[in-house]
Amino acid sequence: MWETTICIGLCIGILVLFREYLNKQGKWEQWLSDNAYVVYLIHVVIVIGLQVGFAPLPIPPLLKFFGVTLIGVPLCFVFSHYLRKLPIASTIL
């Protein structure tokens, strides 16, 4: 019972902390937010492509995971940024 009460209290406390003190958005966060939907739509293609590229490498799977993640996340956001600049894509996305 004690652990459950502490867990719920910490969850509520963290939500209040973020709502009151960390509820700000700068240019970087706004850029990420603007591109999040397009990243959601296109990330599968990019991540699978990177996974296929990393598959034949003779490295442990955990390093492959970190490699795909470290390359894939920025690549998805940059690709979505330029994709949104296309005239036809800007009306849809």
Q: Characterize the biggest β-sheet.
A: none
**% residues in beta strands:** under 5%
Number of domains: 1
What is the rounded distance between the termini?
47 Å
Shape: flat
In DSSP terms, counting alpha (H) and pi (I) runs of 4 or more, how many helices? 4
Gyration radius over CA: 19 Å
- Report the strand count: 0
- What structural class is derived from the secondary structure elements? mainly alpha
Q: In sequence order, what are the helices and strands, one letter per element?
A: HHHH
Low-confidence stretches: none
Oligomer: single chain
Average of pLDDT: 93
| Portion of residues within helices | over 70%
Summary tags:
single chain, 4 helices, 93 residues, mainly alpha
What would your notes on this structure say?
This protein has one domain (25-92). It contains 4 helices and no strands. The longest helix is centred in the middle third of the chain and has 28 residues, at 27-54. The protein is mainly α. Helix content is 84%, strand content 0%. It has helices at residues 2-21, 27-54, 61-84, 87-92.
Question: What's the layout of helices and strands?
Answer:
Blueprint: H1 2-21, H2 27-54, H3 61-84, H4 87-92
Helix pairs in contact: 2-3
What is the gist of this entry?
The chain is mainly alpha-helical. It is built from 4 helices and no strands. The protein is flat and about 50 Å long.
